[in-house]
């Protein structure tokens, strides 16, 4: 009861073929194929652009970023001594 069988798919395909006609259906499938090809090419172009930018960034290295020379105030503070050990007999 769940899905379509092979005969159902054949009837649906025949109905679509009769509805749109052989020539029009063929041209629609050609347009779909062109759209998929264009989409894949666009995705590949985007990946190439990202790869090119990453390579350029790697080539430039850290020369294009300014060096941070502000002093770190926590580094100048002395480290606090650890607390004295607790004496169990002091209670």
UniProtKB/TrEMBL annotation:
<dbReference type="InterPro" id="IPR003369">
    <property type="entry name" value="TatA/B/E"/>
</dbReference>
<comment type="subunit">
    <text>The Tat system comprises two distinct complexes: a TatABC complex, containing multiple copies of TatA, TatB and TatC subunits, and a separate TatA complex, containing only TatA subunits. Substrates initially bind to the TatABC complex, which probably triggers association of the separate TatA complex to form the active translocon.</text>
</comment>
<keyword id="KW-0997">Cell inner membrane</keyword>
<keyword id="KW-0472">Membrane</keyword>
<feature type="compositionally biased region" description="Pro residues">
    <location>
        <begin position="79"/>
        <end position="91"/>
    </location>
</feature>
<keyword id="KW-1133">Transmembrane helix</keyword>
<dbReference type="InterPro" id="IPR006312">
    <property type="entry name" value="TatA/E"/>
</dbReference>
<feature type="region of interest" description="Disordered">
    <location>
        <begin position="41"/>
        <end position="91"/>
    </location>
</feature>
<feature type="compositionally biased region" description="Basic and acidic residues">
    <location>
        <begin position="49"/>
        <end position="67"/>
    </location>
</feature>
<comment type="similarity">
    <text>Belongs to the TatA/E family.</text>
</comment>
<protein>
    <recommendedName>
        <fullName>Sec-independent protein translocase protein TatA</fullName>
    </recommendedName>
</protein>
<feature type="transmembrane region" description="Helical">
    <location>
        <begin position="6"/>
        <end position="25"/>
    </location>
</feature>
<keyword id="KW-0812">Transmembrane</keyword>
<keyword id="KW-0811">Translocation</keyword>
<keyword id="KW-0813">Transport</keyword>
<keyword id="KW-1003">Cell membrane</keyword>
<dbReference type="Pfam" id="PF02416">
    <property type="entry name" value="TatA_B_E"/>
</dbReference>
<comment type="function">
    <text>Part of the twin-arginine translocation (Tat) system that transports large folded proteins containing a characteristic twin-arginine motif in their signal peptide across membranes. TatA could form the protein-conducting channel of the Tat system.</text>
</comment>
<keyword id="KW-0653">Protein transport</keyword>
């Amino acid at each position: 009861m769940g899905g379509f069988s092979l005969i159902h798919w054949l009837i649906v395909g025949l109905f679509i073929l009769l509805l749109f006609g052989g020539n029009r259906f063929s041209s629609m499938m050609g347009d779909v194929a062109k759209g998929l090809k264009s989409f894949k090419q666009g995705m590949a172009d985007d990946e190439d652009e990202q790869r090119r930018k990453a390579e350029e960034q790697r080539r430039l290295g850290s020369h294009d970023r300014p060096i941070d020379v502000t002093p770190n105030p926590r580094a100048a503070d002395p480290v606090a001594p650890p607390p004295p050990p607790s004496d169990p007999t002091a209670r």
